[in-house]
Write a structure and sequence with these properties.
The protein has about 325 residues and is α/β, with parallel strands linked by helices. It contains 13 helices and nine strands. A nine-stranded mixed sheet has the order 3-4-5-2-1-6-7-9-8, with helices on both faces. Strand 6, helix 8 and strand 7 form a beta-alpha-beta unit. This is Leucine carboxyl methyltransferase 1. It comes from Daphnia pulex. Keywords: Methyltransferase, S-adenosyl-L-methionine, Transferase.
């Protein structure tokens, strides 16, 4: 891999720290509760109200959809979080008494090594990993228990991904939910297509939640791309982010039965209760509501499915 790609990879890895600090600050202000995040993320950084509301919408809706999936499956399911970073979803689900058969996180080794370090050195995080007295094993970059696996891999390399899924004892016939939060967009389109095809080929009943940019062909999108490039971070897969249709099509073209994408404006006003919106909008005064609308117009959630069990589970609905 050439020097340019190495620099680009490092910039992509740094997005984990950016996102973690954003979430930490929003939690500090009271947008949502997460007692586990401060155990993994020590630093915080002041962000603007529109950024905080954006993360609130993202975290709230994805958490609600994951919980809906688990309840529909009565816990007989698996979750795989690709590019998980310092996400705390496993611990939040455990704390809410929503266990699953297996929860797997996969990310770059230099991200998982830091997460391993923090988990190993915190009793509260470690205690949640124990199941039926099974031993927790770990090395410098990975951690494995009966229900939770933190593994390192480059998602562009299918052989690595397949190997890690096998090491984590994934069951291909068990309903499995895959999570991607601003992950696919950093991969050249041929690599993200291959990864989505691999999932569709391997898992008979699978759902996917993908959160990332959309409507990136306008002036606002150009500015966003320019800002990211100035930080050495190019969106290599941005062609799939042209519209809601291109977001949906990449799943259909790679072996999935169907897909549905919604802009975050639709998500914010349609999938979050009015009471919750009223509560969080009192936390900070938002000077320019148009800026939040613009931001929400350029992010989306896309849900895809391969439904061999004919579950007819609609994650993008209120229930």
């Amino acid at each position: 891999m050439d020097r340019h790609n190495l620099d680009g990879d490092e910039a992509v890895r740094s997005t984990n720290d950016d996102a973690s600090h954003c979430k930490r600050f929003a939690v500090h202000l009271g947008y949502w509760s997460d007692p586990y995040l401060p155990l993994l993320v020590r630093n915080t950084e002041r962000k603007t109200p529109e950024i905080n509301r954006g993360y609130f919408a993202r975290v709230t809706v994805i958490t609600n959809m994951v919980e809906k999936f688990i309840k529909a499956m009565k816990g007989n399911c698996q979750i795989v979080n690709f590019g998980a970073g310092f996400d705390t979803l496993f611990w939040k689900l455990k704390g809410a008494d929503l266990p699953v058969k297996k929860f797997v996180e996969i990310d770059f080794a230099n991200v998982t090594s830091r997460k391993c370090h923090y988990i190993k050195n915190n009793n509260k995080l470690m205690e949640a990993l124990h199941c039926d007295d099974e031993e927790v094993s770990y090395n410098t970059t990975e951690l494995h228990s009966g229900i939770y696996h933190l593994a390192s891999a480059d998602l562009r390399k299918l052989s690595e991904v397949e190997s890690k899924l096998k090491e984590c004892s994934m069951e291909f016939s068990v309903p499995t939910l895959f999570l991607f939060e601003c992950v696919l967009v950093y991969m050249p389109i041929q690599f993200s297509h291959s990864l989505l095809q691999l999932i569709a080929d391997k898992f008979s009943t699978t759902f996917c939640i993908n959160y990332e940019q959309v409507n990136m062909t306008d002036r606002f999108g150009d500015v966003m791309l320019s800002n990211l490039r100035s930080r050495g971070c190019s969106l290599a897969g941005v062609e799939a982010c042209a519209s809601l249709k291109t977001q949906e099509d990449r799943f259909i073209l790679n072996g999935w039965d169907g897909a549905q994408a919604l802009e975050m404006n639709q998500v914010y006003h349609g999938l979050i209760s009015p009471q919750e919106i009223q509560r969080i909008e009192k936390i900070e005064f938002l000077d320019e509501k148009e800026l939040l609308d613009q931001l929400f117009h350029h992010y989306c959630i896309c849900v895809a499915w391969k439904d061999s069990l004919d579950l007819k589970l609609n994650l993008l609905s209120i229930s």
